[in-house]
């Protein structure tokens, strides 16, 4: 009896394991595991609905929805790749793909992607997923960084309200935040718990690049004049002008919303998708609007790391996986995903949808910025996650808080940073 029970349990365990892993079942039906990082309720619902629609019309290729988390995706994927248990279809961000692409964990989609999809997404977006002349993901959602502003505070102060056609310069932005400050209130609150991507991506507007690739393909860090503009502005607002709250430097974006609603902060520099939380959480009658981020020598240009969909190299059914991606990213479906995540689609056809060009909730301001989005500076840099965590994040946090000066920041980003990156370029 004990033997029969153990055999039965083993059979059930193997059956469950077979159902949870991608592959072909005994009845010939293919099962693909799709790990999604959708987390907002509308986004999760939209993604699950599309998976269900695919399964209803493709009985021979079933897609199994697996919920992942942005908080742990890099380490979780690395573990699953090394253990041979990676999902077949992988939702991630383009600035997280370099090490996986160079490491041989992701499939090169060159020659597998349908012409419609390749033609509909701009070349600048494809650059974010191109490594070693191969394509290792499909960029499908992106978001500019914008200023979420208290409309009442702006009207009371009499400051000029910027538009995508006539944005603030970084110098004017600094003056405006000083004008909006006083009596325990601040013109801006910078939520910089994760300061690196915000700093690097906004620095493109001032001509900053930080990472420079030589003729030999090696990347070095150089903190030049254009790279100084954004961090220096934040540092001055916090430590000189007292126009930016020092207490939010270690906060995430969501942590600043209560102070914004209470009138403590007049503006918040946030990703475009934060509008959903503001709509859900703002007190009745709270008047807010979306403004473009400040412009520098290169105008409204800013870096972006689109959300991506990749196929694991170990996936035994790559053509079927790409067929699902093609379905998921049909223009009307891409619009559904964008609306669910309150972000912008990369596809030209989807981006032209009228639903994304309304004045309500600042959609039109966001879409007006789409053409100025460029690959994030760190996009193809091997070792970026380690450089970010061990060098750039602590250095920027100390600089923004006033603990170190600009020269110290430069030294740490360049000297310490290049030591880290060198290990990945031997």
UniProtKB/TrEMBL annotation:
Pfam families documented for this protein: SBP_bac_1
Instruction: Please list which residues make up the signal peptide.
Output: 1-21
Q: Residue ranges under compositional bias (Polar residues)?
A: 234-249
| Region spans: Disordered | 234-253
Report the protein name in the record. ABC-type glycerol-3-phosphate transport system substrate-binding protein
Entry keyword set: Signal
Q: Which CDD domains match?
A: PBP2_TMBP_like (cd13585)
- Key word Signal present: yes
Give the domain of life: Bacteria
